[in-house]
């Protein structure tokens, strides 16, 4: 599954062109990380994960890997080349001169770490200490892509120090309350400060010449400015979603399906003053269907809105988690061929179908989807 005699070609400009090569994550060795400032702000106040950390049970690892392996096989049957990361020992302490934490996280969600823009694959800064070394799981693949494709660029954003100065102390309380969290997010008062550039790759959506980046818990304004400087031939747009008390990663909130169509979480709508880019250029922003579940799986960081964390295979075909019947029905009505994928047992290891993948190659060139600016 992991190897092919054909050399890899790296190129992907958007979220919907025909997918030809992808990385699918693994659950091996996944851990619930110990407390740290960024993590404490993310874990919902009523979560069963509060106060827990350590290796996840082998039973849950095996079940998640069954789902991920089956997903990889499904993609291969549809003509998509699939590579997998190389897990490291996540259940060990890590440290820098500035901090120490007792374990790491895992490598189920490559979308969080790797951002493919055209011929470049960029390692994000990451904003959690427990995820500092996660890029190592992907280095064997990136080295091979560099060898196979002379035009491929392997880049890494500057590693942040992640000292306490990167996080707001008022987010360290376990009982802030949703009302205050919503007030803070509306005011763009997030757990990350502007001490140094921070961004997770999963906060970035690719629209050809344009990159849309969520400002929130895992990406700050300095991180967005760094991306703007790093991609000078792109237009970089900052967005935020005031209805989200835990604004982490854009792909369960704002999901492009094909040119001209975006699903938006109805509880986290894009503010009116940020909709102009899409409206001027004829894009339709549709409220996503409600999730089929009232709660996430046990020991899962993510919200029920992983229902809209889908993987588009081409402008007419989309993978949706198999139990998310409402999201499947909506996308069917919108004219998409829906491919159900059983992945819910892997959610706790890092997210849904989009999270669990990272593009290597999609057909198509860089287009201008927002000519009216």
TrEMBL record:
Residues 35-58 are annotated as: Disordered. SUPFAM superfamilies: Pentein. The keyword Cell inner membrane does not apply. GO terms for biological process: creatine biosynthetic process. The keyword Kinase applies. One of its GO terms (molecular function) is glycine amidinotransferase activity. Gene3D superfamilies: L-arginine/glycine Amidinotransferase, Chain A. It comes from the Bacteria. Keywords: Kinase, Serine/threonine-protein kinase, Transferase. The active site is at residues 200, 249, 355. Belongs to the amidinotransferase family. This is Serine/threonine protein kinase. It comes from Minwuia thermotolerans.
């Amino acid at each position: 599954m992991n190897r092919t005699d054909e050399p890899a070609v790296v190129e992907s400009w958007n979220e919907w062109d025909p997918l030809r090569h992808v990385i699918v994550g693994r659950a091996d060795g996944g851990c619930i990380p110990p407390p740290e400032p960024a993590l404490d702000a993310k874990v919902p106040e009523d979560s069963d994960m509060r106060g827990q950390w350590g290796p996840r049970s082998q039973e849950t690892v095996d079940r998640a890997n069954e789902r991920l392996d089956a997903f990889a096989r499904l993609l291969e049957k549809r003509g998509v080349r699939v590579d997998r990361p190389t897990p490291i020992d996540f259940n060990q302490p890590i440290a820098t001169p500035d901090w120490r934490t007792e374990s790491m996280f895992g490598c189920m969600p490559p979308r969080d770490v790797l951002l493919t823009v055209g011929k470049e694959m960029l390692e994000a800064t990451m904003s959690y200490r427990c995820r500092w070394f996660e890029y190592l799981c992907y280095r064997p693949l990136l080295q091979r892509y560099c060898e196979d494709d002379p035009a491929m660029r392997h880049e890494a954003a500057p590693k942040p120090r992640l000292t306490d100065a990167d996080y707001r102390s008022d987010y360290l309380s376990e009982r802030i309350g949703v009302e205050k969290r919503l007030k803070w997010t509306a005011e763009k008062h997030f757990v990350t400060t502007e001490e140094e550039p921070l961004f997770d790759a999963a906060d970035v959506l690719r629209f050809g010449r344009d990159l849309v980046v969520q400002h929130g818990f895992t990406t700050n304004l300095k991180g967005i400015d760094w991306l703007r400087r790093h991609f000078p031939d792109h237009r970089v747009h900052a967005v935020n979603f005031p209805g989200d008390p835990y604004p982490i990663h854009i792909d369960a909130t704002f999901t492009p399906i094909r040119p001209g169509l975006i699903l938006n979480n109805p509880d986290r709508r894009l503010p009116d003053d940020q909709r102009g880019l899409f409206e001027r250029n004829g894009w339709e922003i549709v409220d996503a269907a409600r999730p089929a579940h009232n709660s996430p799986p046990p020991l899962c960081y993510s919200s029920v809105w992983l229902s809209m964390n889908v993987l588009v295979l081409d402008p007419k075909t989309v993978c949706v988690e198999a139990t998310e019947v409402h999201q499947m029905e909506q996308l069917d009505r919108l004219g998409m061929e829906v491919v159900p994928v059983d992945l819910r047992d892997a959610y706790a290891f890092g997210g849904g179908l989009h999270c669990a993948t990272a593009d290597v190659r999609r057909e198509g060139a860089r287009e201008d989807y927002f000519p009216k600016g």
